[in-house]
Sequence to fold (197 residues):
Amino acid sequence: MQQNSQRAIRTLFKDLKTCQKRWDSLNTDSLKHATNIVNTVLQILYVKQPQSWSHVLEDFSSLNSKYQEKMISQLPQLQENLNSFLSKIAYQHSKMLIIQQQLDQVIDEAVSNLGVEYLSSLPIFVSFTLSDCSAILHEIVDMYTVELNLKRTIYNNLLKINDRKEGMLYISCWINEPYIDLKRLNDIEELIESEFV
Fold:
């Protein structure tokens, strides 16, 4: 029975790693769409400033408004493109939550079959107890939960930026994912590799 629990836990951690890799790929691919929105909003802000236009173009006021209309008309499609990626990222997160629930079920079954001492006293792997496995997986999923919330906040605020600095801050947060601690994830990965031999 212990081997069945080990196998199930290994599989769930492998599935979680697959979700993390897919998330990373989607995050990288979505950056250009977030950047396009920021650049378009910045162009609109620039055009709205009269001092931005050369005095030679002052006689062509309709040019200014036509350019603004053109830029504004592009925003819905740009938002839709980014939202498509955000939905795919959210889907990876929902898969992570399912994996978390499945691990909780595996742990409940293991405790009922092997005994409560495997929960936090006896290791099920080299040194990991069932509680250790649960805590690590929950820690990883929690990082992605907070990061997804940040991405949703950024998405909702991209059209509201007031200047280049604010736009660059959002773009930097989008790609660098401040709530996903890569060093900690690497440490966890090394721990898992040594445990799941």
Helices lie at 2-48, 61-114, 117-120, 130-157, 164-176, 182-195.
